[in-house]
């Protein structure tokens, strides 16, 4: 989670919502990193999780991220939760809960929906206070402007 927080800080400095993500392979090696970059790229799919999963898939040479873990500083939205299922990730670890758009238990629970063909293990609220503090700081500064 500390490496995902480093990615979130990069987003913060770039004026993006500070969310960071990393993908670890089965041995625990980081094979993909990402942070939000929607503003810079004008890409609505530029969420940290999507960026990290794309890089991991590129590193592995396959879209199937079986055996991998996605670690992200904020509970994924419906798009990112769905992408985690489609990528066949083994595990999803997140920090801060997102009561407004979270799709891993808060508002929806996409990854545990029994109707889907794959359901990753979920580890919630890892370093949640640190992850939430960065988001709070970002939005406090944004409102001041």
Automatic annotation (TrEMBL):
| InterPro entries per UniProt | CMP_dCMP_dom, Cytidine_deaminase-like, MafB19-deam, tRNA_aden_deaminase
Span of domain CMP/dCMP-type deaminase: 1-107
Supply the name of the protein. tRNA-specific adenosine deaminase
**Keyword Transferase included in the entry's annotation:** no
Catalytic activity annotation: adenosine(34) in tRNA + H2O + H(+) = inosine(34) in tRNA + NH4(+)
Species of the source: Actinomadura litoris
Q: Which family does it belong to?
A: Belongs to the cytidine and deoxycytidylate deaminase family.
Q: Which residues bind Zn(2+)?
A: 47, 77, 80
Instruction: List GO BP terms, alphabetically.
Output: tRNA wobble adenosine to inosine editing
Keyword set, alphabetical order = Hydrolase, Metal-binding, tRNA processing, Zinc
Q: Which domain of life is it from?
A: Bacteria
